[in-house]
Amino acid sequence: MLRRGTVRGFRQHIRNQHKKLITLLVFFIIYLMVTATTLLTGNSIKDYISVVSEQQNEDAVKRTGQTRDINEKRGITTELPLYLPHRARIDSKAYSHAKFNEWCYSADKDTFTYDKPFTSEELASRGCKKRLPTVLIIGAKSCDVRTLSHFLSFHPSVALIQNDTFEINYFGLHRDKGYEWYRNQLLYITNRQVVVEKSPEYLTWPHDCAQKVHDYISPKTKIIIALCDPVQRAVSDYYQNAFNPKADPSIHKHYHFASTFEQSVIDNEFHAKSVNFYNKMVDTGVYVKHIVRWMEYFPKEQIYLMDEGILKVDPYKELHKIEMFLGIAEYATTDHFYFDEVKRYHCMRFPYKHCMTKIKSMAMSDIDEDVLDTLYEFYRPYDNQLSKMFDRKFSWMEKYEWL
Length: 403
Prior knowledge:
By secondary structure, the protein is α/β, with parallel strands linked by helices. It is 45% helix and 12% strand.
């Protein structure tokens, strides 16, 4: 007679053999299905596996939170990295390597900004060229475009001129100089960076700007529009430009600056407390009017509306959404920013600690409250329309509930 332990071992052996047979049977069935599929479609097994692998790769891209357009990957030459090494987000040396190792400029080691372009031979060997922008930040003026651009410029895959006050404004002021002039104002890049240009006037001026961008840059251009409280925007616009001797007359010909803000935005000539909506200082804040014009040439999926109110409270939140929108690797973290209790706004902690110099503005408390209420009543229906169009609420819209 067999011992009890021997019987148990024999039974376990049988179970293991059954498992192996079942596994082999499953693989055999899969093989038959693949073979049948390839015979019916005329494709080789290698092609089938390639398709499956590509689908798995696309799924992996989605799982990691990257939204780079797969169709662009198939049809357009690009080598944008899908992810960045974790250390590049926490260690300055690793960041410098990720940002500048394949960059076209020498780098300032203290501020992690570009310095001078390499020699023409070095540029050619690195594949550096001056290319037209793939992303435009088109406004709105006085909605903290400077801060957004500054924060975004530190992303390793972004090529954005790191001069907070510099704006090319080609389609508005320099169209007569030609596209070669325009291209020469931009940075050298490789195909591992995206070119971002900021020209906040484009949202409203010139009126054919959207068509020109579509026809002469690319219909695939992605558009970022920074929006903010339209009343606060008008106040800032007045404070920054009413008495500015450097203001360009071609840009400001549709402005009306009176001795006070209240007199500039309210027209009592025809009706008491009538908003002077012909004044560009007021008209710029009618965002939906200008955005609709851009949507004639660019689908909603290519337009991102940044909320300045969120950027001020949580810059990481907005920058992460923009990274997703642009299809570039996730870089920004909450640790990259800190709130300066003295300056009362967010500054950068990484890759080096610094604060921007903010442009001063007039305090809302200095404006007549009746005028402010009149302006909010004027903007409310336009903002409600924009909110419905993009299915989202904006941070300043809670003020309309107080009216």
